[in-house]
Structures are given as C-alpha cells and as structure tokens.
C-alpha cells in the first residue's frame, strides 16, 4: 500500500467511497445518531454532534497508523454522506481484516449495501493483498446477514455473549470470506 495521506476514492454506479472531511459531520450524525440504525451496532446512538467531529478525527488517526481504513459512503451525484464502510482489525502479516458497514435508514433495501461491498471486497483482496475477510453480526440483524451472505460470506460460528450494548448482552455470528473462494460480484 503506497497511499500517502488519504484513502483512495472508489466509485460504482450510485455510490462513491471517499475520504471523510470535517464538513461531513452533520451527515454522519444523522446516521450514527439514529437509534434504529444503531440497534445492532457496538455502541449506542450519538446524542451530540461533537461525537461526529471526534469520530472523523479518530478515523484519520487510525488511517495514519494504518490500523483503520474507513471510508465515507457518498451518494454519487450529491456527494452527501449516506454512511461509512470499514476495514478494521487489520493484520498485514495474517492477511486479514474485519468488514463493517453502516447506512442511514433512507438508504436501506435499495441494493446500496451490496454496491458498497462490491467495491470494498475487491479492494481488500486485490489492492491490500488480504486473503481473508471477517464480519461480526448480531444474529437478529437479518438485513446485514442477508447482505454479507449474498456477497459470499459463510457463517463460521456463534460467539456467545460477546457484546454489552444498550444494557443488553448480545451474541455474534462470525462470518468469513476467503479470497480463494471469492467470486467477484
Ligand atoms: C446492513 C445494511 C448496510 C444493509 O444495507 P442495504 O443497503 O439495506 O442492503 P441491500 O439493499 O444491498 O440488501 C442486501 C440484502 O439484504 C436483503 N434484505 C433487504 N431487506 C431485508 C430485510 N428486512 N430482512 C432480510 N433481508 C433483507 C436484500 O434482499 C439483499 O439481498 P439480495 O441481494 O439477495 O436481494 C443496512 O441495513 C444498515 O446500515 N444497517 C444498520 C447498521 C448495521 O447493522 N450494519 C451491519 C453491522 S456489520
């Protein structure tokens, strides 16, 4: 990987994955501040806009350390941020990373999740030279399970009582996708 200061921009038919900027705060807040969107996320919905500012700073710091690769998902025409997608828990040595995706409610059910993963997966395998991608999903998050399984991820196990969020203990389904099994979508 020889990118310097920013993640590369990746474009598809309706969305663009791009570097997040401070002016994206309000768009980001409308996603991460919505309790319905955050129902299966690893932390509760934000209550203050300031969290969006801190979040963008953390994303930039994570990229500078080459630990976190988190793009804004922007609508192609308007460039408005609809959500984010992430490669985290990255190990160059083990050639693996975990995939995360979040979109605002108005974007659900339009195939945009699939469009995003169809940009992110080839990037991870071909540009970052990874061999394995993982996803950690709440068993009740049917929409997300359908998205990842539809993109070729395979259920590998159930991790019991892995998260404590919203005052509840939650299990995780762990899914994996191997480069050697991957069929480009
Ligand atoms: C998970 C998420 C990104 C999915 O995005 P999306 O744009 O709705 O996904 P898509 O429209 O591409 O749909 C993906 C698949 O789910 C299916 N699906 C859509 N709505 C569904 C529902 N209510 N229940 C089950 N499956 C559903 C679609 O049919 C599609 O399958 P197909 O491609 O075989 O037709 C989005 O719902 C989201 O951001 N949720 C909140 C954050 C979250 O939970 N993220 C996942 C944590 S890893």
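Sequence proposed for the structure above (185 residues):
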């Amino acid at each position: 990987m020889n990118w310097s200061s920013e993640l590369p921009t990746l474009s598809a038919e309706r969305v663009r994955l791009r570097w997040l900027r401070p002016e994206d705060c309000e768009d980001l807040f409308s996603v991460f501040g919505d309790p319905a969107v955050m129902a299966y996320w690893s932390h509760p919905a934000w209550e203050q806009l300031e969290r969006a500012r801190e979040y963008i700073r953390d994303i930039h710091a994570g990229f500078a350390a080459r630990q976190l690769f988190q793009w804004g998902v922007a609508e192609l025409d308007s460039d408005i941020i609809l959500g984010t997608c992430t490669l985290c828990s990255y190990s160059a040595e083990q050639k693996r990373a975990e995939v995360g995706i979040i979109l605002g409610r108005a974007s659900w059910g339009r195939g945009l999740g699939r469009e995003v993963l169809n940009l992110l997966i080839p990037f991870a395998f071909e540009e970052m030279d990874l061999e394995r991608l993982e996803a950690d999903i709440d068993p009740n998050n049917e929409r997300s399970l359908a998205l990842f399984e539809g993109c070729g991820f395979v259920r590998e196990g159930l991790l019991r009582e892995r998260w404590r969020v919203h005052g509840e203990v939650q299990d995780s389904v762990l899914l994996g996708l191997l480069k050697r099994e991957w069929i480009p979508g």
